[in-house]
Amino acid sequence: MPEEPKKEPVAKFPLGTLIIWLVLTLGLIMLGGFNAWTIYKETVKAWENSNEIQQLTDEITYLDEVLTMSARLRVSSDNKFWEDRYMQYEPLLREVIDNIKKLSSMLAWQKLVEKTEKANNLLVALEMQAFSLVNKGEQEKAIAVLFSKEYEDNKKVYSKGMQDFIKEIELNNKKEIDKHEKQLIWFSFFCLIILCFGWYVILYIFGKQFVKRRQIEIDLERTRKRQELILNSAGEGIYGLDKNGNTTFVNPAAEKMLGYSLQEMSGHSQHDLIHHSKRWFSL
After folding, report:
1. Residue 204: per-residue pLDDT
2. Rounded Cα gap, residues 18 and 31, in angstroms
3. Residues 93, 60: contact at Cβ < 8 Å?
4. Alpha-carbon gap, residue 164 to 265, rounded angstroms
5. Beta bridge partners of residue 269, listed in sequence order
6. CA-CA distance, 243 to 4, in Å (whole number)?
């Protein structure tokens, strides 16, 4: 009496692998988002710093013009108001220059600021000299000091220093933005390569599992049909039992011999159905 053929175990779906890679994908996306946010904040910080410096340089230019105008009007008009106005604004200019020195973290920026500050100190010294002369009644000498070649040369050095300083700020901003953009592009490219490769491997594994499962199903169905054909064409009565002695299959010849259909015997104990103590088997 043949037993039911054992089924070949079907390959399990790699759910664990899928979950791990989904978590890794989510982690890479979150890391990419954090990296992009960090780069964005650094860029904004650089822009804010440069904008603050730009505002300070504009203020320096304005205060420098105020001081130059006040000094020249003082020596030209002999009006003490302009000297008082000069004394009021000169400390403000020094304060703004000191603030720029604090914000100028780069060595090149510091050198430009120091160069500008040196020229400003020379201009202030000449302007103070002119005030001293005009207060002594030597107006012509005071005017000569503020319109001298030395004064004009220092004004040019001062102006050029401010222009170079602004250019350095703009150049540094462009470098910072380009650096951050490159970091973001390379990081995104790296994450994309990892994700593409990983998902290619995952899909490849899933494809193989699917093909393998499908082939097993086809083989099982083919075996089942072949066994069914053999059983149905056999003249002897054949039936199968599970490990508990319950009927799992019966061929037509066995149905005819035993007087039970497959539906009546399936899942029932053969011993209970066709035991020798049954009436139609009794002597």
Report:
1. 80
2. 20
3. yes
4. 101
5. 246
6. 9
- Give the mean model confidence (pLDDT) for residues 57-74: 87
Please enumerate in sequence order all residues whose Cβ is within 8 A of that of 52, keeping only pairs 6 or more positions apart, or say none. 103
C-alpha span between 239 and 262 (Å, rounded): 9
CB 127 within 8 A of CB 93: no
The helix-helix angle for 107-135 and 139-146 (nearest 10°) equals 160
d(CA 248, CA 266): 5
pLDDT tens digit sequence for 97-154: 787 777 666 555 677 777 888 888 898 899 999 999 988 889 899 889 989 999 899 8
CA angle 107, 108, 114 (to 5 degrees): 85
Q: What angle is formed at CA 206 by the lines to CA 203 and CA 207, rounded to 5 degrees? A: 85
Give 269's DSSP letter: B
CA 102 to chain centre: 32
- Which own/partner contact pairs does 145-154 have at CB distance under 8 Å and 24+ positions apart? 145/75, 146/71, 146/72, 146/75, 147/72, 150/122, 150/126, 151/123, 151/126, 154/119, 154/122, 154/123, 154/126
Q: Which residue has the tokens 């049954």?
A: 278
- What contacts 13, CB < 8 A, 6 or more positions away? 209
